[in-house]
Fold:
Amino acid sequence: MQPKKSARSTQEPRWLRYSLIGIALAFLLSFLFLPLVFVFVQALAKGVDTYLDALKEPDAWSAIRLTLITAAIAVPFNLVFGVAASWAIARFEFKGKAFLVSLIDLPFAVSPVICGLIYILLFGSHGWIGPWLQDHDIKIVFAIPGIVLATVFVTFPFVARELIPLMQAQGKDEEEAAISLGASGFQTFWRVTLPNVKWGLIYGVILCNARAMGEFGAVSVVSGHIRGETNTMPLHIEILYNEYQQAAAFAVASLLALLALVTLVLKSVVEWRLRKELAAQDELPPDGLPATPRTAHA
Structure:
């Protein structure tokens, strides 16, 4: 009987557990679920026809298209950078390694608005490179290239930050074994490294894509707010709301809300697969119960 009393003494009281669960559920209901419901209710408040018309409007379609183009450029770029940086940091020792890690974390510490101002100071008409760009008729700020650059800057840590700890935890024994058996560097990466980190890679890409489509601060500074040309979906929503076109603003916002929901579902699936894969590597099932030793089947 003594072990039971000892086990009970390490558990929190039932009323405390239920209170914490209730507080957490109330918080999620108030700050996550209800705002999402409100967005869709307001988007459809004037009927489905008004909702569809707001999405078919030329400026709205231009904003949607620009958002997709920006994400289509920024995400693959960050995918390549994230894989290369994480492989270098996790597998090799070199001078400046700590500095490279600090650079990867830089967008987390710098405000996106500051990022946009940096690009204005570099590529603006009165910036360091601005006069040369004007002489050669090259537009960076207040154009699509500036929007892409700002988006790449604020999103490039996501893939690398997911892969670095994963690669470090897995070690490099399998890669060294593959190389000792005659595999080339590319074969080792493609057949050993990449399969081992595929779920972490997908997880980072999902987060990177969601941030790219929803970025506001940096893009707002470098875009110039040119309707039909340099407005992404978040900027278009702001303009519509400031013009008291609430139905149209919430209609476009509902697309971003749908993106958030899809991202949440995909994120949960990838997290589940990643936990399952890590549990299999540790010879434990996903529920954490001890697995049957392999030697038992011999």
